[in-house]
Design goal:
The protein has 285 residues and is of the alpha+beta class. Helix content is 24%, strand content 34%. It folds into two domains: 41-154, TcpA-like pilin; 165-283. Helix 1 crosses helix 3. The termini are far apart.
């Protein structure tokens, strides 16, 4: 008699349940990781949008010599701040946890202390205190109140210190352009600063914007450019020189060097930058 052997090719019920259990565990782990990464992305995007609004408020202050009006990112303009400085691409915070109020709010922060320089703040409502704290931790000056994160900025170039500092003038340079491979340096003179005899002049300078066009990107994916700001005499404590000893009149200036780099891929490649400045009088100690 011939015996025919049968070979089983299937899985047992226990084996199938074991595989399904493993797939379920991996799926739950993957979902958990995805949720954490999505939350981290929203935290960082919220932080970036708050910083953008704060930087826009400083640019507005440089131009207008005042903080923007109280407002929010709901599409309603207020003296052009939302439209021309913030940009209407920022509307709701990424969490949008409160459907009735998912917007960013901003205003000048009132203070009864004359020694505190007026501040500007941006605030938004987040899902809970933990996320509010995570966003606040990524901002230079911020606080939380339950599910609310509020971030502050002071007048550009001025800390929350002495009322003994007087802002005299502010402005932004014209576009300084380098179209050659060698560095291009331009000297910027600002209006003469007149201080009292018990004061000395100072100047604060910061890069406002930089733009590049027509270069091959380097291995980091960035345009290779360089902008440096050099103060008079290279002395960080003495940006201004008194015209005559004791007369309280100061000449202040600074130089901006713009250098383009990288291999050009178009005709007429360039690097363009402009700089903002504040001149001030500070009481002698």
């Amino acid at each position: 008699m011939n015996r025919i052997s049968r070979i089983s090719c299937g899985f047992t019920l226990i084996e199938l349940l074991f595989v399904i259990a493993i797939i379920g565990v991996l799926a739950s782990l993957g979902l958990s990781i995805l949720q954490k990464r999505t939350q981290e992305f929203k935290v960082r995007k919220t932080t970036a949008q708050i910083q953008h609004i704060l930087q826009a408020s400083m640019a507005y202050y440089v131009d207008k010599r005042e903080w923007p009006n109280r407002g929010k990112s709901d599409g309603n303009d207020d003296k052009g701040f939302y439209t021309y400085y913030v940009g209407k691409n920022i509307v709701k915070n990424p969490f949008a946890s409160d459907p009735n109020d998912p917007y960013y709010h901003w205003s000048e922060a009132p203070s009864n202390d004359k020694n505190i320089v007026p501040r500007f703040y941006v605030e938004t409502k987040l899902p809970n205190l933990e996320i509010a704290k995570r966003v606040a931790a990524l901002l230079p000056v911020a606080e939380t109140d339950r599910d609310l994160t509020k971030a502050y900025v002071t007048i550009p170039g001025q800390a929350e210190i002495e009322s003994s500092v007087r802002i005299i003038d502010s402005g932004t340079t014209h576009d300084i352009i380098s179209s050659k491979t060698s560095p291009y340096t331009e000297s910027i003179e600002v209006p003469q600063v007149n201080c009292n005899r018990d004061e000395y002049a100072n100047i604060f300078v910061a890069l406002n914007s930089i733009e590049s066009e027509g270069f091959v990107k380097n291995f980091n994916g960035d345009i290779k450019t360089n902008v440096t700001i050099n103060y008079k005499n290279g002395d960080i404590k003495s940006h201004c020189i008194e015209v005559q000893n004791g007369n309280g009149k100061y000449d202040c200036d600074f130089t901006v060097t713009v250098e383009r780099g990288g291999k050009p891929i178009k005709t007429n490649p360039y690097v363009k930058a402009n700089v903002s400045y504040f001149t001030m009088c500070v009481k002698k100690r």
